[in-house]
# Entry
Amino acid sequence: MKSLSDTSISVLDLVPYPQGKTISDAFRNTLELSQKAEALGYKRYWMAEHHNLEGIASAATSILIGYVAAHTKTIRVGSGGIMLPNHAPLVIAEQFGTLETLYPGRIDLGLGRAPGSDASTMRALRRDHGARGVDFGELIEELVGYFAPARPDQKVKAIPGNGLEIPIWILGSSLFSAQLAARLGRPYAFAGHFAPGAMEEAFELYRHQFLPSHYLNKPYTMAGISIVAADTNEHAEYLSTSLKQRFVSLIRGNLRQTPPPVKDMRPFWTVQEEATVQSMSRTMIVGDKETVRRKMQDFIDSTQVDELMITSDVYEHSERLHSFEIIADAKKSAL
# Structure
């Protein structure tokens, strides 16, 4: 059985700007959180590609990865993930080839196939490229080809990019992504922080079908998970109402910036919406250090994941920093 003390923990940052805050605030907060995460011993700091979503400022993911990597020293920095169908694989190879050359041995490339936004924005992003109907696996194969050592007869090269070993992760929230990661012999990350429905089945399928590769000789799993930690269980529950309100706005098709927490959620959702939010957030952990430690271990026991990728969507930046401090302390206390 896996233990929390032996399980790596990492940070997923959506680069949020809550109500009353600006995008400039979000970038400053990301830098401070990444440096705090490095000091606390988190393994990775990933940012996710999203477009046209109020309250999330991580659209130019590659630029933000460079920004964080330039102001940290040891923590791995990467994408969780780049939505590859939004881009020409050559462009991503060049961007991440540049990042890996600038910050060697510290860059991760997580890849997803979702648009990272709504259908109208997807059309604006993908243009003719998205109309080709190219399979996600084919796009990954093309991308990997650009990272391979250049052949003498190769007409199109990623410069920089060719000949670089950049860890590529397959991200998803479905059985399709699990099967693809297994077939490619790549590490697999599941988006359990917002779509946990098929998580256990996806991990089982990935492990069962995994084919060892040049990149990985045995399965490696990561689970996205939301944690809101505070000094007391009561305060953590209070802080978690910000994320619950945001989920409600998502359900209603009117996503808005993260609002301040409230003492009572009853005026903010219907019975049906409450049930939907509970389903969406069934893996979310809320509590003090001991509660977080115990529930993190329970989650590891039930999923047998190798790594936790943690997001903590808390309204006040100072409370968010403290949440990640408590999470790191919870892991240390498991020793």
Observations:
- The chain has one domain: 4-333.
- Strands lie at 8-13, 44-47, 76-83, 107-112, 168-172, 188-190, 221-229, 285-287, 307-311.
